Hints:
Radius of gyration: 26 Å
Oligomer: single chain
Amino acid sequence: xxxxxxxxxxxxxxxxxxxxxxxxxxxxxxxxxxxxxxxxxxxxxxxxxxxxxxxxxxxxxxxxxxxxxxxxxxxxxxxxxxxxxxxxxxxxxxxxxxxxxxxxxxxxxxxxxxxxxxxxxxxxxxxxxxxxxxxxxxxxxxxxxxxxxxxxxxxxxxxxxxxxxxxxxxxxx
Length: 173
């Protein structure tokens, strides 16, 4: 039986990669949970899970209130949200990871929730986002000069007309 649809995929869609990553993460959580349960016992593992979930709620409430206060203050002062908006997102993600059962998620959630460790996930997300942006939307371009000899310019460097100066260099990453 032939159909009119015969498109072949050569690359995986981002949604299938995300589903694969979530599935592998859930599998890793189950493996770690079973290993911890076999090491310290099922009862203590359940208690540890409940304790980390309660800690997640407390940290989410405390850090979330601070982040929302910062966002509210920036809005009242008509300033751009900047880093405060990113911190609020990381706090929400960290709280979700802490509340869900699992020890790997708890560690990742703590990285997002604690103010002194939040710089690491912020940098990772910023790098991932910057790699997905087109070149025209990326940050400032840094140029390093590679000229080794002097160049004499025109006698009137700022006269009107077409540009007469050439600056040699290379774009540094």
